[in-house]
Fold this sequence. Notes:
By secondary structure, chain A is of the alpha/beta class. Chain A contains eleven helices and 18 strands. By secondary structure, chain B is mostly beta strands.
Amino acid sequence: MRGNKIRQKLCVVLLAGVLALSSSGCGAAAGSGVKKAGTYDPLPVYKYTFGLLGEDEMPVVMFGGPIDGFIMDGYKPETMINDNIYRYYKEAGVNGIVGTANWVNGDRLDEVTRILNYTEKYRINYVTFDTSLIWLNNADIPSLDDENVKQRLDFYEQYESFAGIYCQDEARMEYLDELAKAHQFVFDYNEKNGTNLIAYSNMHPYWTGSEVGYYSTDYTNKQYDYEMMIRGFMDKGKLPYLSYDRYSLLRSAGDDQPGTLDQEWFENLALIRGWAQEYQIPFWVCLPVGGWGALNKAPNEPEFQWLVNSALACGAKGIEYFPGVQPTSDDYMEVPNGELGLVAMDGQKTKYYYYSKNVTAQIRACQKYLMNAASVGILVDPASSPDSNISNDLPFQMPDGYTFLLDEFRELRSVSDNGLVGCFDYKGRTMLYVMNNTLEDEVDEVTLKFDGAYGYSVIQRGIVRSTTGKTLTLNLNGGEGALVLLK
Amino acid sequence: MRQRTKAFKVRSAALLLTGLLAFGCLLPIPVYAGLETGETYSNSFDFGALDGAWVSECAQVETDEGQEPGLRFAGASEGAGIVTKEEISAGKIRMEVDVDRLDFSSGGWLGFLIGTQDTDPIMDWNHLADGKHVMLSYVNGIWHLVTQTRNEDGSYVGYDLVDGDLNPIQSGSDSESRHYFELRKLPSNQGVLAGVTLIVTLDDAGSFTFSMKQDGAETLLAQTKDKQLDPYTAGRMGVCVMQGERAVTGKLTNVRVFADDASQAAAEFHFDQSDVGSDYLIDYSGNTRSVTFGALGKMKLTATGEKAAYAVNKTSAQIDRNVVGYDLAKNITVRQDLYLTDFGTDAVFLFCFGMGNAYDTELGAKDTYAVRIENASGQNTFSVVKFTEDGGAKWSTLMEPTAFGEAGGKIPLALSVDGDGSLTVTVGDRTESAESPLEFSRNKMYFGLWLTGSATVKIDEFSIRNAVYSKPENKDLTADFTNNEINVNEWYLPSWGGNLEERYDGVYAADGELVFRNVNTNAGITTKAQFSNFDLSFDITDIQREEKNGIGPSTDIRIMYGISGYNDAFNILYYQELRPLISFRASTRGTVYSILHVENEIADTLPERYDMFSEAAKGEIFTVRLTMTDGLLALYLKTSDEEEFTRITEIQTAGALTGSIRISGYGDGVQGDGACSNFRIDNLSVKNTDTDPSNHADYGFKSSREWIEWDGYEYTKTWNNGDLLPISGRQQTGENSALIPIVIGAGAAAVILVGAVVFWSVRRRKKSGARK
């Protein structure tokens, strides 16, 4: 009996221990003085998924996929569409494709059918560019009751991976009324059929000085600025997400040399983030997958990591790649095969397949937290500045109380050693997305200092570890990110 | 390879052979190799100082009387011009351009570059379409100011300018006319501007004016009213010209740029300097003679009795013993205009040649030669001498003194030496040849001018031409496109050049032929090897003769040669360098003509049986043959039913031009005016027809399909997981890793483990105790 009592006491002790550790974090390493991190009123979270995506699955969407036909060196293979390409996309972490087949090659269902057969096989969302449904530049938005439209949508509905319809890339002010109709076309279809198709439209980035003329089809028209463009797009288009593209990495020398930033990367993130918060929707960022033209540098892996992780740190809830495969128009075709897109035109893996695979392993491990966390701002080691233009002083009206650059955040006091920290509320708890804010191919010890000793769970490279202390030091490659949850 | 029967091939070969023999094409290999006649040096002495090509003493450039320095456009074409080297910051910028004379009577443009950021290329059509630059043009007897910027779709939009009285001056309402503004107060003068200052201003709000000043009076010609130009931001200022039907000629005497109404110019172009790069940037648009500076002048040699004057040119000429007997050019030709300004009986002018060293400025090195001009008996004579000892004191006479006349003071002096040493000299109105060939100790020679006695002479228009054989190493090339393959080691086919709307477009092999589908000027097939004399042939197997899918009948089938870089895109220099551009082109339906471009367009209608663009020709195969023999270009055609080629045209060009050979399309594609080429060719071959051709190269075979057979990117980076935090708790990898349950689970597991150990220990201790 006495043994039973002892066992009963021990059970009580065990239970108390479990509870104590549960509340204070990792018991094994918890030394004296480790405090429980604060709990806060949860902040609102805005997220959006579509098609086959799960509720917490972060979109990693590729703009432009394989199509039929292209020419290089006088050789014209019939098609880029093959099983390997889609398998590689899947392996690289891509879960959505905005296809351009119909755009490039005309209205050919056989081409789209072959694509959908592969997206179906690999469970990748396919957003179709279908000129018979929506082609803003050339035709009115049709009625859902139109028999041809019905037939076309019936065709698509055979495929679970059919996930949306392309509406417009980089719209201009004059398009917005028509674009609103295009989006409504998709919204109506969803309502009628209980589907969750995305109406895909992407927005311009902001360039300093681009308020003159750029957002109109008439370049001399100076009445529109970027804020008018975005607000017009949001007010009329009513999309549940805000996507924009920005290719800030510039070629200072060859692609094998380090790139430079145009000093407008974070300014763009700050603006889009602010407007997305105001409209209570998430934002997505489209990133370059290769270099083209005279300016756009092909990112190396630290630069690629930096682009993705800085977007995540600022609260992006979707990543887009451009291009998915080398576009077959003149300027892009001047880039050697294999240097542009996740997969080369001939179906071989490019470097970006590997870069994406690495970075999306981290995204997938973190997405449950990232998709359910509210971005509060960022903290930056001022000495780390590939883009030193990080400021709350923004050129356009932001929502009341909007903050971007923080001095400290809850328990976090500072970051040093090239660190940049995205500060989030995760269901009332403090969550940080820490990155090495350098484009260099180097490992830095990024150190966070807190107001006390806490327990931390860390996800880095998709691996979860934990530790305690008043400071937290993470070894991060150039551009690499890690998620930290305070306990 | 287009499918044909074996019998057909044999018959074709026999017919071809017969035809070629009939034309003498397979008769002995052409006598000459590829003669290139290049000008290696020329100078009109229009700056205030001799350029660096001369080693001289008592020699200088002197401006002709009455001449004013300026910037001269001569044969300037696309975008030749000048901008400030530095960017100029201002809230308002004003540029004044003093025009001595500009001739736009055959069309053309004067572009005002206002705040441009670019330096390379400085002047470009695209730069003039970005919203703040303007152009002056003469159209239909009226001067126009053209403001333009491009819409997204490539069309132009204007700015609604008004005149000085705020009256509209737009020339029309259609999309083309609405960016042309009439300047009726600018005197028409048949398209020639003379003695006028043109003034543009632009401020940082985009407010713009365009004025003229003549005889001290300034007249406002055009200004913005409601719609402003792009605002001025700090940038470079300058002007450029672009050709209309003909290249632009003219002269500007000054350009001044003022910032913020300052009276002192922020930049002023100094056209009297030779170091033109110090103040501004120049775009010669590929032709260094199209933009020149300074004032017209001459080189002056002044000798005193004690001191000779001399100028030795540092440009050498190569003696090529294969260049003999050409009508087209001698091996070495040096020309100059000589003025005997002060030339007494003690004066001797020597034009020395055969010199071995440009820095050997002692007169008369042993075994060198000179044309000797003197006035010993009051009559100007010339002779040719050979110095027999160093120092010029002793010589032998090769050509006895000959009196010559002069016209208007200018004495043309020309010397030509052929590869065998034969010499011809022209002085004034006399031309004499040496009786026996000269012997030169070296294969390379320099030229010098000497003046002794008390005398002054002037030299103008000095040039050296050096014709040489060009025998590039290559091999005879063929491409029959069997298996839709091309040897890309031998042929270059750009991936670009197709119509941008249809990604199937471009140049590619299909059905055993080479297809040109909806291509523009830059799409083609080009030899990677260079040729001088060549024999090119290919079959035109199909041409799109009707409109299809909104794309009209095919535009040109073009042939080019002498392309210096096989991957060079086409540009207008091809015309300027006087290379014939052969185009087969449909003029109107049913009429066909070929055009040979030699600077200006020449058009010849093809014989009716070669009306390849006509409907009647559908299904016919036309074989094209183009030969270059030392400057003689010959074009032949043959249908598949004909045994012999017909010579269509023959033209004597300035000489062979070593380079790549290209067959291309023509047009802008649907993004331009919709013009593009659609045709097919087959059985392409290029033969080297140089004397003793250097056709020994072996380029190996690389299939056009090979590029696609790589193994993908080799990713070698290894991520060092030693970078990660030490394990504390249970490691978990993969998607949606659950942080809190792991922590709780890890903690609980640890506690349970500890508890279990304690519990087990207690039990063991109790048991032990019991045993005690």
